[in-house]
Write a structure and sequence with these properties.
single chain; 464 residues; alpha/beta; FAD/NAD(P)-binding domain; Enolase-like, domain 1; 3 domains; seven-stranded mixed sheet; 14 helices
Length: 464
């Protein structure tokens, strides 16, 4: 019997994969999407972005009711944590989102091929023993947890981000190995719920790659919230013992070992491209030294008809980056042109306060020899922030010294992830800081902090 034929088969139903499938279907292509989980949405919707944001939101509200409401004249009495119910809320959010993707597949007439996908030849995909043909095969299998040598993740005592979203009780002491985005977000969740959290980071500061001032300010704010940090420190051993996890630490530059024991250790040292059992070697798809699939400027691999997007290729491992790549690739396959400016992909840390960035950091511009100006404005000087009792942080805008074109923006403060979108649009259209400063912003809003930071580049902020 002849195998079923599609215009496009997408392997992986995460944000990159499902969005690519939807856009291709909108353009009139016959599309199938391969997914081995019982639910669609990939890591992001099932065990990543969505469940972590649900717990971040719930734990933030718990902490506010427990510690902050009284300052605003709201007496709540005894605030109690029902962790089982909170986890139920998180699971409900996940279910609603994954079922939403299922609905979108049906609406757009996309076939869900259930099972693990393997490329068996040019234009050929095997899914759970059934063979399918496709004109275009798109790999969108995302990423997996990166481990540390000699440390075995059991998802009970030594957990990855997946296990940290499923803990059945609040640990008395939690160590987070890695001071990046995932570690700080999940560390914040359990800190708010009552755990004593210590973050161990190999570098000399948390949030590697972000603007230096933002990194220092975030460290200061998180310390104030009760999170402890051991910087320039590496974990050489972590083993499950009788009462939890026994760790051995030593200074990154070498020196005297230190021992510590905690209830739970979270390994959050990053993620790696997930390409296991895809058949890449047998069909000759090239990968780089880090295991990422090599592609050209049109997401094409070295094999005709095979493409890749998202976490499996170079660039930031972010859901919105994968989504944009999925849309652009689908449109390219339809004969349209497409473009992504990789300098304009925002990054957000969903701690409290949030942290967001786009474009260049000061450190990058110095290294590139670009002359620039900086404008900063604190949330403390903003009326809406004060009314919200959310005064931590600042907005920092960097502009070209000669042309005033905005080169980057770095925010730590309330709703930073939303505020950064204005800068993204401005930079996409080549705006100057003067353009932002002369745009009328509603009062009283947090967006006025962005306007004031733009004014500060010309040394004329109004409210500080």
């Amino acid at each position: 019997m002849a195998s079923q034929k599609y215009d496009v088969i997408v392997i992986g139903s995460g944000p990159g994969g499902y969005v690519c499938a939807i856009r291709a279907a909108q353009l009139g292509m016959k599309v199938a999407c391969v997914e081995k989980r019982d639910t669609l949405g990939g890591t992001c919707l099932n065990v990543g972005c969505i469940p972590s944001k649900a717990l971040l939101a719930a734990s933030e509200k718990y902490h506010a009711a427990h510690d902050e409401f009284g300052k605003m004249g709201i007496e709540t009495g005894s605030v109690k944590l029902d962790l089982k119910k909170m986890m139920g809320f998180k699971d409900g959010v996940v279910e609603a989102n994954t079922k939403g993707i299922e609905f979108l597949f049906k609406k757009n007439k996309i076939d869900w091929l259930k099972g693990a996908g393997k490329i068996t030849g040019k234009g050929k995909v095997d899914v759970a023993g059934t063979h399918y043909d496709a004109t275009h095969i798109i790999i969108a299998t995302g990423s997996d947890v990166a481990g540390l040598p000699g440390i075995e993740i059991d998802e009970d005592r030594i957990v990855s981000s997946t296990g940290a979203l499923e803990l059945t009780e609040v640990p008395k002491e939690l160590v987070v190995i890695g001071g990046g985005v995932i570690g700080l977000e999940l560390g914040s969740v359990w800190s708010r719920l009552g755990a004593k959290v210590t973050v161990i980071e190999f570098m000399d500061q948390i949030l590697p790659g972000m603007d230096g001032e933002i990194r220092k300010e975030s460290n200061k704010i998180f310390k104030k919230q009760g999170i402890e940090f051991k910087l320039s420190t590496k974990v050489t051993s972590a083993k499950v013992g009788k009462n939890g996890v026994d760790l051995t630490l030593e200074p990154a530059a070498g020196g005297t070992e230190e021992k510590m024991s905690v209830d739970v250790a979270l390994v959050a040292v990053g993620r790696k491209a997930y390409t296991d059992n895809l058949g890449l070697e047998s069909v000759g798809v090239e990968t780089d030294a880090r295991g990422c699939i090599k592609t050209d400027g049109h997401f094409k691999t070295n094999i005709d008809g095979i493409y890749a997007i998202g976490d499996v290729i170079a660039g930031p491992m972010l859901a919105h980056k994968a989504e944009d790549e999925g849309v652009v690739l689908a449109e390219m396959l339809d004969g349209q042109s497409g473009h992504i400016d990789y300098n304009l992909i925002p990054g957000v840390v969903y701690t409290h306060p949030e942290i967001a960035n786009i474009g260049k950091t000061e450190e990058q511009l110095k290294e590139e020899g670009v002359a620039y100006k900086v404008g900063k404005f604190p949330f403390m000087a903003n009326g809406r922030a004060r009314a919200m009792n959310a005064m931590d942080g600042f907005v920092k805008i960097i502009a070209d010294k000669r042309t005033d074109r905005v080169l980057g923006c770095h925010i730590i403060g309330a709703e930073a992830g939303t505020l950064i979108a204005e800068i993204g649009v401005a930079m996409e259209f080549g705006a100057s800081s003067e353009d932002i400063a002369r745009t009328c912003h509603a009062h009283p809003t947090l967006s006025e902090v962005v306007k004031e930071a733009a004014l500060a580049i010309d040394e004329r902020p109004l409210h500080v």
